[in-house]
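Board notes (copied after class):
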Amino acid sequence: MRRHNSSTLPLPAPDTAARSRSRDWATIRTLLPYLWEYRARVTLAMACLIAAKLANVGVPLVLKQIVDGLSATQQALALPVALLLAYGALRLSTTLFTELRELIFSRVTQRAVRKIALQVFQHLHALSLRFHLARQTGGLTRDIERGTRGISSLIQFTLFSILPTLIEIALVTGVLLAKYEATFVLITFGTLVVYIAYTIGVTEWRTNFRRTMNELDSKANTRAVDSLLNYETVKYFGNEGYEARRYDESMQRYEAAAIKSQSSLSLLNIGQSAIIAVGVTLIMWQATQGVVDGRMTLGDLVLVNAFMIQLYIPLNFLGVIYREIKQSVADMERLFALIRENAEIRDAAGAAPLDPGAAPIAFEHVHFGYEPDRQILFDVSFEIPPGKTCAVVGPSGSGKSTLARLLYRFYDVNEGRITVNGQDIRAIQQSSLRAEIGIVPQDTVLFNDTIEYNIGYGKPGSSQDEIIAAAKAAHIYGFIASTPQGMNTMVGERGLKLSGGEKQRVAIARAILKNPRILIFDEATSALDSTSEKAIQAELRKIAENRTTLVIAHRLSTIVDADEILVLDRGRIVERGNFADLLSAQGVFAHMWALQQEEAEGEEPLHA
């Protein structure tokens, strides 16, 4: 790959730069309401900031009086002492008011960061399953980390660096204009204009590199996290070298962008230093000439020199600060983009909680597709009376698990409706609906915490006795008691320290603890051996009593007692009835049963 030197990079087109500035202001406007909530503290902090700058500008003025006072022998004793005390008081006041400002404003900054981070976290949980199936976890976490850090940086740099510098520039310019020739103001103001214009122009150009670095950094982190999460798969296929090369390719592109960014930074720093050096030289030349001509005293020379030092040192950092602000805004863009991400599934206006009592379920002429050009369900209608069990079977990809996702309202139907207790689930509060549904999924993913935490997650705040009772009902307590740490046994990332059967029993215990009105078993015993399956099937039948239950099954032997069985094929219900009726019909279900019986008979010698 050919790499270009940063000096040959083109400047962004005017419309691109305009769009960039528009994005920056939009990002800053998004932040302002979080600060306005603490306007009293912000106002008090601003008052301390102004007081600190007034004291800071007063220091050179007192210093001039001290120098001029020393040259007058009749005032050599009394006047310098008083001025020295004033000098010390002003120095102390500068530090005192600066620290008071920091103390007052720290709560504003940290609270804003906390509230925005919490809002992003809550919004991510409110987004639909479609978003989370497409997300890249590594890049997402890096965007949140950089964005929250950028908020703190932006507030600190804008309010406590740029604003104080601008106030100091105004005060110094006012003093120079009042006490000295207009030439001093013209040189100071001209230097400032050239310096700021140069800094903004070059920094705007450099911001594109920062955005590129952010994107490449997120991609590299995504690849790293994805590879580590799939550690076993990498090992199974011996692809450690391949993964390392993919990661290195991402880091190589990041390296190229970082080098361009650093090259342009050097160009910026050199130009800023040159502008300041010319401005200071011109000011000192003018002041020195004034002393030689007798128009100015030595105190005036000291005053002008002190002003220039006070002004240009923070101004020198202004370039760095502006650069950091631009980078912070770029970092915040992605964070606020997450907040603006459309939550596909929302509670309707005036959504009501699920009514108490029995919870019959009805699918009424439901059509659904994850994508417009890929329909999954076609005119699906069925009912599950309260306290009854309905099982759904069919080949892989027929839409069985989609029924559970729609009932949970992870997605909304394209046509038709789903009701619980006669209420359209789109008119029910999502939290109320999901609080009454317990699920044992086919692929159980656990938190990287203890077994007790993972079972207790079904009903936060449960006592240990309740958790143990649920574990016993799920036939996992014997395993837990056999481990050295017992309930405090860590399950590892995504529960990888447990076997598939152990994870599934934890999921069953979690559902038992939740004690919902509606149960969904999505291949709930697929990871269990035959002995464990028979024991748990009896327990599942027991907990399903008096609950409305939807069973998604692959092994037909597990649904013999279902009140109704639906046979789904290519998104359509092709058969329905109880177990005996479907066998006697000699249709699709009977064919599936015969195939599974043949497979079971073929496996028997292996277990002999």
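Comment from the instructor: The chain is about 65% helix and 10% strand. Confidence is low (pLDDT under 50) at residues 1-14.
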